[in-house]
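Forgive a beginner's question, but would it be possible to get a protein, spelled out as residues, together with the matching structure tokens, please?
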Amino acid sequence: MIRFSRAMRSSALVLPFLLLTPQAVAQQTVSVPAIETALPAPQDLQTGNKTPWIYEGSDVPRDEEWLFGAMDNGLRYATRENGVPPGQVSIRIRIDAGSIHEEDNERGFAHLLEHLSFRESKYLAQGEAIPTWQRLGASFGSDTNAETSPTHTVYKLDLPDASPAALEESFKLLAGMMREPVLSTENLAAEVPIVLAEKRERGGPGMRVAEQSRANLFAGQRLAERLPIGTEATLKGATAEAMQAFHDRWYRPENTVISVAGDFDPIIFASLVEKYFSDWEGKGPLTPAPDFGDPVAPAGADPANPVGETLVMVEPDLPRSFTYAYLRPWRLVDDTIVYNQGRLADQLALAIIQRRLESRARAGGSFLYASVEQDKVSRSADLTLISFAPITDNWQAALVDVRAIIADALATAPSQDEIDREAEQYETIFASLVEQRAVMPGSGLADELIGAVDIREAVAAPETFVDVFKGVKDNVTPQEILERTRRLFAGDVIRSTYVTPVAGEASEAAIQLALKTSVEPNTGARLASKPISFEELAPVGRPGELVSLGSLGLQGVTRVEFANGTTAILSPTQAEPGRVSVRLNFGAGYRAFGEEDGAYIALGEAALISSGQGTLGQEELDRISNGRVMGFDFGIDSSQFTFSAQTREADLEDQLYLFANKLAEPRWDPNPVIRSKAAQQLAYESYATSPGGVLSRDLEYLLRNKDGRFKTADAQDLAAATPEGFRKVWEPILAQGKVEVLIFGDFNETDAISMLSRTIGAIPPRTSIAAEVLARVPEFPAAGTATVVRTHRGDANQAAVVMAWPTGGGVNGLPESRQLEILTSLFTNRLIDAMRERAGASYSPQVVTNWPVDLDAGGRITAFAQLKPEDVPVFFAAADAIAKDLAVNPPSADELARTTEPLKQLVSRSMTGNLFWLYQIEGSSRDPRRLYHLQTILTDYSVTTPERMQALAQKYLNARPGWRMAIIPEGQTLATSAEDASPARIRAVPPRETGR
């Protein structure tokens, strides 16, 4: 039951704004629609004294919001009502078959079958899945998707604004996909190249390391050699008969679980599951799952120190990394309260070690980072994994350093203070889940149930988490933590992998010897336990004088201004109970830097906050925020810097204090800068290992016309960077520009104004930003620039391409920027169709738009894809042809509807979250123009005309040739033409104009 998943968050779309105010959204009542066609009552619900199937063998209290059913044919389901976001229904169908279930000649079949199920099925004609879901408002790839893991295949649908007819139609279509996909030779011929393209895109040194590490870690087990993507030989050898046999063997009701959560009566969900799946019968006798195998030490291993298989991998472009694991057999357990309390105690034990390791790394240890975790992997092993990155080639010293900290935890019980510190953190997390259960999205709940089924455990309400953990917190002792630590760092076999860029640096024998050699415990790694209180800290300054208080111009949204120039926007709302979003904006962003400061920009993103403030270094910041709901994210935008956090009302003032104190009294500890510099130096060479890495490294720099501020710092740049230089660049920047604070969520407005007065309103007056700084706007490369060619050192069958066109920027152009989202969605759909047909490029082709609101220029439309090197000219020709066709021929009404409906639903759903509103209103306390276009946002994204799209294409896509970039393998030359790349032969309009 305890799975330690991330706390659920409402989605926030960073798109411009909406017609309604936050309060209006929060106060909406959404009526639950009724299914118009008569549905028989569900017959297989487990009610009354029946134990729901997921709680069999468990004493975990049942989550009463779920309804459970088990049908005679073996299919199990769970349904619940959930109105987050309003009108949406999330459906998950889990098939208990993944890559581990494949025979040697079937590797990749589970994933390939997932693709084929979407291509054609009983109620969906060939290629109609994507347009059908789009017409229902679901975006393909986000709202409609699937995943294949070693242990299962899961089909996912988030149906927005679900009408009764759309809901029933969706169940019908999904039933056809599960029960009767069309597994023909024709469909195989179309989908196998796409799956091979996915395999190609994932290749390179990183994937080699992942594959070989897995093979080593799980040596002798099925998991070692069964990646979901499969092998080229088995995929190319797949036949319609073989795929049908795989489907018949595993796609059957006994192997199926359906979870549904959404804004309908859960009885209706149950009725629909039974209507479309109750008559499903498996073909032939049920095939039992194969034996996944157990971890086994090699013959002759010392039972007291069973160091087994060791792998040394030489990858010249990857940084050093070392992992070793203690492996134990996975066994099915009864998911009881006692079991979960034991799991939680294990997590406390690991958290204590993790904090000690992090403290050692921060202080300048021989490793850049180190982590410890316990996991039950694919029902194949229960393992404890230790990972670290040596800073130098002295991996032996780093290994001793890490093992010495673990040895201390194995030798001596932790202090009660250490236990209490970690317990307080977990207690806060679980309490927050209870506070926020009303805003848990249905998609997350549906996923959680499927995750529980996968690991063969139950689900529980947030209150149960709190109660179970209280039993641990109140009773766990240092001695029990010591005993659990010893069990966690023991296993049937110990396996290890070392990745190094230098041949001969390590041998398998040397690593095995090092792991067998005992180390002296590092007793100095234990952390001081003295708590720190905000009450002990000096005030930021004298409380600020309030000079202005009034409405921002939106219902329930207040604008505040203090004498030091700080402005604030406050929006108290119950849309997300127990949650407060805070954002502080200041300064000039990228405009604040000179081109020579490029290396310090990325170092600032990584090290500025951890370099401390006032009397608080990194360790003190950790201690003072322990057991609190606080954060401190730092970002650099085109025209401002941002501090942001998710907190709660009880912690709001202290959160604001940290933000204010960072500006008023920054600290300049050198270690975070040195550590970040080392991390970037180690990572730089790895960019060259794949086309995607080269894109991450170079694209922004090139699209900004080689502006040095956007250059990824190389070895020479980083060597020249120092902690002293870091302070010289960043200290004046932190003092520049007036501050705007936004607080959105569940808080008292009057109290928040007082908090602001004592914190942000109390910082000293800020220096002005020079006019020449504000005038800096990035340039787009000049028209007529030749294709930029970069090379990578990854696999010889990988390449990437980019085309880009400049657009605009500024507040006044917001309506046009939203219409560009529709245009680029049209472009994406056509590019996917063209590239899948011509080059088997999977779903990687994408077209996006960027429109800076704070700058009057600098926007762009960017199209990109990963593909084979020989298909680079195919992409350029396809993108050119589509761009020109959009400018000449307006899209059809159906094509436009399939684009605008998903966008409309995406915006409508996103508006229920605080962050959505925060992102759209920010800046308006100083620039009211941002509010002018709020009333049209929904129509801007969802209402247009074919002529409007044509005009935008003429304005931006046809005004000048697209800028081009290609990333190809080293040693190859760029093909400038190909027979299939002729624009006349590239389909420029969608192949399907209407539904069937």
